[in-house]
Write a structure and sequence with these properties.
By secondary structure, the chain is α+β, with helices and mostly antiparallel strands. The chain has three helices and four strands; from the N terminus they run βααββαβ. Strands 1-3-2-4 form a four-stranded antiparallel barrel. Helix 1 crosses helix 2. The longest helix is centred in the middle third of the chain and has 18 residues. It starts with a strand and ends with a strand.
Length: 110
Amino acid sequence: MATYYCGYLVRNELMLQRAVDLGHPRPTATKDKTDLILMAARDLMGHTGVLRSAKLRCVKTPKGNKLWCIAFSSNDPHERLPTTAPSEEKYKALKEALQKKGPPQWYQAL
């Protein structure tokens, strides 16, 4: 059975810009980019109060694109996340920070 996550997609460029805004130099190597994306995502999750209730996961969009997802739920019980979509109070601050319009969506894990 395929694993799915319910969350918000975060674009690499948005997380890289957040890292630069936090004082890190713009990376040139792929590994440095990944490290900064992960660091910036954790910072965003902490800033919006979801660090303890969400996980950063790599997902595939319906169009087949690979993106990071700040996930609140999963259909995989080994993930130790709820199996149902979160209430608005849990994701509202992140939704506003990412300037998203609707609730978190479900995406297939890579």
